[in-house]
């Protein structure tokens, strides 16, 4: 299923990118500087948006996604990008390495999001911006219930994606300091800027 999802990801996402996601990504990644960690880089859709960074270390557990992402490295404006096959819950990096962390549309699929956030805190420097663009469980009760009902089947189709995950509550549990939250599409998607307060 992971191979099929990797093959379908770009054709499904390209229309959404053109509508709005590309401008959201551009805005979010404009806040990334220095040595950047990208969580779950997928097919490398963020790579062209890195403009003012020194380098990017990207992690991705899906080998098929990594193969597709390598084709996108060529469009990165000479930003050095290294992709590691790894999970967010066990990052292969030392403490206090990264100046910025980026995660876009990936925390829905991470099996243990709290552990992943604790790992992000460990490897990022004090005060580092931690930048998210994620879809979340909606506040409107009927829509939230629909997300709950659809999630079991959706996870099987979309590589473990939870339609109803509340990323904001995990941020607080992990001790990240939320600076601002910008909702999109009536709150289905959130752009979130945090800092590592350690």
Quick overview of this protein structure:
This protein is of the alpha/beta class and 198 residues long. It has helices spanning 2-29, 63-72, 113-123, 141-157, 167-173; strands at 34-39, 53-59, 81-84, 100-104, 129-135, 177-184, 189-195. It comes from Virgibacillus halodenitrificans.
What does the model show?
The protein has helices at residues 2-29, 63-72, 113-123, 141-157, 167-173, and strands at residues 34-39, 53-59, 81-84, 100-104, 129-135, 177-184, 189-195. It starts with a helix and ends with a strand. The chain is built from five helices and seven strands.
Instruction: Give the proportion of residues in helices.
Output: 25-40%
- In CATH, what is the class? Alpha Beta
**Strands ordered across the widest β-sheet:** 3-2-1-4-5-7-6
Could you tell me how far the N terminus lies from the C terminus, measured between alpha carbons in angstroms? 39 Å
């Amino acid at each position: 299923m992971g191979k099929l999802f990797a093959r379908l990801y770009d054709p499904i996402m390209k229309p959404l990118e053109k509508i709005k996601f590309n401008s959201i990504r551009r805005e979010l990644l404009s806040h990334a500087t220095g040595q950047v960690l990208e969580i779950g880089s997928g097919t490398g859709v963020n790579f062209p948006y890195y403009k003012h960074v020194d380098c990017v270390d990207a992690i991705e557990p899906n080998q098929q996604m990594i193969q597709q992402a390598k084709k996108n490295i060529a469009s990165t404006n000479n930003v050095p990008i290294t992709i590691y096959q790894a999970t967010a819950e066990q990052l292969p990096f030392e403490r206090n390495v990264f100046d910025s962390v980026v995660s876009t549309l990936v925390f829905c699929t991470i099996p243990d999001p709290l552990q992943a956030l604790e790992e992000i805190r460990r490897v990022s420097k004090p005060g580092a911006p931690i930048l998210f663009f994620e879809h979340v469980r909606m506040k409107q009760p009927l829509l939230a219930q629909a997300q709950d009902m659809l999630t079991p089947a959706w996870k099987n189709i979309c590589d473990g994606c939870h339609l109803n995950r509340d990323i904001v509550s995990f941020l607080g549990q992990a001790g990240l300091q939320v600076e601002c939250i910008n909702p999109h599409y009536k709150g289905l998607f959130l752009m979130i800027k945090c800092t590592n307060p350690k």
